[in-house]
Amino acid sequence: MMNVPQTISDITNLIINEAAKVGKPLTAQNFNVIHQAAGTKPLKLPAGKMAVYTFFYTANNQCLKVGQANLNSNARYQSHHYFRDSGPSTLTNSLINDPGMTMVDSTNWHGWVQANCERFDVLIDASFGKITLNFLEGLLQYYFQPK
Asked: For strand 31-36 and strand 117-125, is the pairing parallel, antiparallel, or unpaired?
């Protein structure tokens, strides 16, 4: 398990440094990183925002999922990954198909994910567009190497 963020500033600094390297600087005023602790109710996607979200399994600090939610994708951001039947590319379906995740309570996916996963999410104004969202998602996927 590597590259697990210890603080919001870890992700903030990663984004600022890497965006500058490609000549498309972002500042801390351009985005907001929020932490959603394990056991908390998932937040709604704020109006006018897009997000890159991460799920970390708290027991071993392993990144399980990095994904994105566009401007009108609140359900994907707030709830899809907590339920089995929300679509094929959800966290729960990845866990179902992973024989190494035997500790997951398959009778209560929503409860298990909410109780055992913390999130670090990057919120950015929708005016930055899909290319910026793709960059942020790719950067976090590359850095955190989700399971």
From this structure: antiparallel
